[in-house]
Amino acid sequence: MKFYLKDFWIFISIAETKSLSKTASQMGMSVSSISKRLTRLESYLQMTLFERTTRSIKLSPMGEVAYEKSLLITDEFQRFIDELKSSKSTLKISTPHRFIESFLIDWCYEYCRNKPNIDISVIERKESMDSLDIDELFITNRKSGYPLAIHRQLHPVKRVICCSADMDENVAISTPDDLKDCSTIYFISNESEYDIELIRNGDSYKFINDGLHLSSIEESLKMVLEKGCVLVGIPFIHIRQLVKMKKIKVILSEWEMKDLNYYLVWKERPYFKKELTEFLNYIEYKWKEGCGVY
């Protein structure tokens, strides 16, 4: 027979109110349900807890002992619950994409400063998702085959073409074809991406699959600022601040390229911690704020 802690709370209430109907009212249950729970507890303990008459109900001698012990059990359990609620929550967030991790750390740092009761671990993870921890969020550019994974598509990441703000003004760049005369490099979001296509009012332009392709944000921007290269396909979120500082400028802005799409993934379960839900909404908000159009 299973042990039900709530039965002890019902037993305590009956002992203190000396009434099944008052206990039923307190517990939001029917009198018949209260009676059945009491019978189940007596069967489990193999003792009679109350002496009943047609007009009254009072604790039996063994019931008196059980009442004192039940108070200790339920008080200890309540302290356990209170400690859990007041303790720090630890959340995890991970991504296999280094260029996402770079600003993810800044967001998590900001969140922890405003939420002192929250610990966040930004962890490294490979692309495959064989499992997810109970309070882990995962950002990826492809849907997972993990059966318990819930996917929420994030705001599309805009990509642009940029160069150093002090690039020689004598170098005229008015069409994508003009980039052939420049030191042009390409940012790729994954190993399979080498063909980058630009679109403008129904016209399209596809870059020839040659030249330097980089997946590192840091190294890509270093080539722009130190080598004077033109960078194609950089997510705008990574140069927004540099544009404000007038170190980098966006060129050929009328030409658009395919957005980068990412998913926020977490493990399905019937109950979500409030902390996880709030953190999930925060990441989605920061993503949209940072990845929108310039």
UniProtKB/TrEMBL annotation:
Classification via SUPFAM superfamilies: Periplasmic binding protein-like II, Winged helix' DNA-binding domain
Secretion signal span: none
Keyword Cytoplasm belongs to the record: no
Entry-linked InterPro entries: LysR-type_TF_proteobact-type, LysR_HTH_N, LysR_subst-bd, WH-like_DNA-bd_sf, WH_DNA-bd_sf
GO terms of biological process kind: DNA-templated transcription
Domain of life from the UniProt record: Bacteria
Coiled coil: none
Entry GO MF terms: DNA-binding transcription factor activity; sequence-specific DNA binding
PANTHER family linked to this entry: HTH-TYPE TRANSCRIPTIONAL REGULATOR, HTH-TYPE TRANSCRIPTIONAL REGULATOR SINR-RELATED
Protein family: Belongs to the LysR transcriptional regulatory family.
Protein name: DNA-binding transcriptional regulator, LysR family
